[in-house]
């Protein structure tokens, strides 16, 4: 199982096993990894782990987040990646990782703020984030039928997004972000960022992954969309 090793100035402070889907990092006490330092934002970053994959998301922190010396907003973690938060470092360690083919890249659907008095719109954006898989675990499950989401409101109402990749990110950065994971036994939605959790069929979710059913209605950052399976 993957883990993070927290250190400062070369001194190891603790090891954290990534045994939950959403692990928060920040200065405030409610975080899973609390770093009581003024250089760290109250809610600085989050690590989301789905199956064998983990990705890091900076939560619009004041001083930013680095991975291997480079500033990042969202980053799929690879073995021996070093996350830097001020003077603190978190080393990501995972066994038997391999890189998927170039075709196995993540899809992102980002709800961007529209001009004044206009609704937010859903846009597809390419990312430089690769999807990885562990040995013996397929990064593109074939046991589940293809699925898609269709926008129900806003200027792009009626537009469809096929859920072809392992992970599809939805939401408005800085406001509300969630990820839909395609797993061997179905599709699951997980909250990633924001103080408000996604709503499915009128019910607000919690921090745990939620299995999606055919024709479920999802609401994220004010945009409603319908999840459906394709025959």
Give the overall pLDDT as a whole number. Answer: 79
Number of helices: 0
Question: What oligomeric state do these chains adopt?
Answer: single chain
Mind telling me the C-alpha Rg? 18 Å
Number of strands: 25
Strand coverage percent = over 45%
Q: Secondary-structure element sequence? A: EEEEEEEEEEEEEEEEEEEEEEEEE
Q: What are the segments in which pLDDT stays under 50 over at least 5 consecutive residues?
A: 96-141
**Protein structure class:** mainly beta
Architecture of the largest domain in CATH?
Sandwich
Number of domains: 2
CATH first level of the largest domain: Mainly Beta
CATH topology heading of the largest domain: Tumour Suppressor Smad4
Shape field: elongated
Helix content: under 10%
The N- to C-terminal Cα distance equals 36 Å
- What strand order characterises the main sheet? 2-1-11-10-7-8
Largest beta-sheet characterization: 6 strands, antiparallel
InterPro entries: Cell_Proc_Reg/RNA_Proc (IPR050923), FHA_dom (IPR000253), SMAD_FHA_dom_sf (IPR008984)
Organism: Azonexus hydrophilus
Pfam family, one: FHA
Protein name: FHA domain-containing protein
